[in-house]
Design a protein that fits this description.
CATH class: Mainly Alpha
Distance between the termini: 60 Å
Oligomer: single chain
CATH topology: Serine Threonine Protein Phosphatase 5, Tetratricopeptide repeat
Helix content: 55-70%
Number of domains: 1
CATH architecture: Alpha Horseshoe
Order of helices and strands: HHHHHHH
Structural class: mainly alpha
Number of helices: 7
């Protein structure tokens, strides 16, 4: 029996809200399987996570990445479509980082500035030591 400042139901509800769900655990395990090269286990894990929670962004995006790598673009789009708009934006960033051209070049048709640019360098290398 719980005795405290908050009713037991409220405490249990709070604890449930901070603990990972079964779908979140499945997605995390699938991500680890993908990183270790076990694509079949990763796909199963992502699909299991989505079966339990169709709105699980990590599972939807993880499955989409696997499908893209296999060339199954239509199914990858469908998996990505199940994710929230914010997660779909992350998937676009992943796709951009894997391509040989940068996002600016794809959008504008121009390459980013190369060395010899008149613009000063920006980033950690430009900071004084």
């Amino acid at each position: 029996m719980f005795i405290g400042a908050y009713p037991e139901e409220e405490v249990n509800r709070f604890i449930d809200s901070i603990l990972p769900t079964g779908a979140e655990l499945d997605a995390k395990e699938a991500e680890q399987a993908a990183e270790s090269g076990d694509v079949a286990a990763a796909e199963r894990g992502f699909r299991d996570a989505l079966a339990e929670d169709p709105e699980n962004e990590d599972a939807a995006l993880g499955l989409a990445k696997l499908l893209i790598d296999r060339g199954e673009l239509d199914e990858a789009r469908a998996a990505r479509g199940e994710a929230s708009p914010r997660a779909r934006g992350r998937a676009t960033c992943v796709r951009c980082s894997r391509s040989t051209t940068g996002p600016r070049e794809r959008v504008t048709g121009r390459s980013p500035r190369r060395s010899g640019s008149r613009r000063p360098a920006i980033g950690p290398a430009a900071l004084p030591a």
